[in-house]
Recover the amino acids of this structure.
């Protein structure tokens, strides 16, 4: 088992949690944090540029190898250390897994995390107050996204078919944040299939070290 994997990132980040969740599911040893060999990599810092020219986290360090972009990292981990078990062998279902990983990166994260949840976590209003107008403007897109995800799940156990895949790993961090938020009861109803789905995700042994409360 590889002992050199390190995730450069902050644990509260949804994308960092996705990479961590992937490592936990595979059962590969790793370390996590913004400090590597005494060098601290802050979010948005130019210090990140040698590791990722787009100055974003998470970044995977596998010995001398450096890899960024969450989807690519998770596929690499699955292919290298898990015989691609999280991607399914059926070409059509694999394409659907890839489709949902892309949609989660491009759309789900923006709607749930960037445009909505971050306003509560890092308020940008006067005296660090929550901008309720920004929250109100973001809610219709969140509600629409919830409907899309509910329709995709239907009676499925997981996001793509009956197998746990990288699509579930990518979705879980943002979705669990949304469901756990104190302001979000009206956005994800108590009888929503999303709540049942999230409960199944959180019940996995691999989830225990990943989906922890944010230290404020």
């Amino acid at each position: 088992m590889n002992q050199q994997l390190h995730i450069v990132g902050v644990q509260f980040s949804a994308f960092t949690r996705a990479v961590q969740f992937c490592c936990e599911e595979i059962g590969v040893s790793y370390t996590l944090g913004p400090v590597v060999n005494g060098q601290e990599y802050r979010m948005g810092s130019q210090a990140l540029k040698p590791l990722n020219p787009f100055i974003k986290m998470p970044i995977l360090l596998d010995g001398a190898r450096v890899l960024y972009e969450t989807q690519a990292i998770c596929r690499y981990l699955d292919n290298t250390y898990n015989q691609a078990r999280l991607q399914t062998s059926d070409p059509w279902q694999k394409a659907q897994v890839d489709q949902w990983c892309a949609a989660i990166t491009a759309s789900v994260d923006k709607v749930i995390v960037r445009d909505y949840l971050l306003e509560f976590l890092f308020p940008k209003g006067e005296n660090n107050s929550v901008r309720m107008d920004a929250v109100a403007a973001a809610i219709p897109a969140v509600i629409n996204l919830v409907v899309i995800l509910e329709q995709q799940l239907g009676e499925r156990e997981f996001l793509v078919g009956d197998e746990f895949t990288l699509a579930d790993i990518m979705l879980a961090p943002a979705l669990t944040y949304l469901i756990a938020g104190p302001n979000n009861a009206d956005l994800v109803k108590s009888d929503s299939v999303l709540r049942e789905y999230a409960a199944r995700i959180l019940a996995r042994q691999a989830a225990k070290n990943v989906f922890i409360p944010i230290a404020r």
User: Anything to note?
Assistant: Helices lie at 14-26, 70-81, 91-121, 132-153, 166-180, 193-202. The chain has six helices and six strands. Strands lie at 5-8, 31-32, 35-36, 39-40, 59-62, 65-68. The chain has a mean pLDDT of 94.
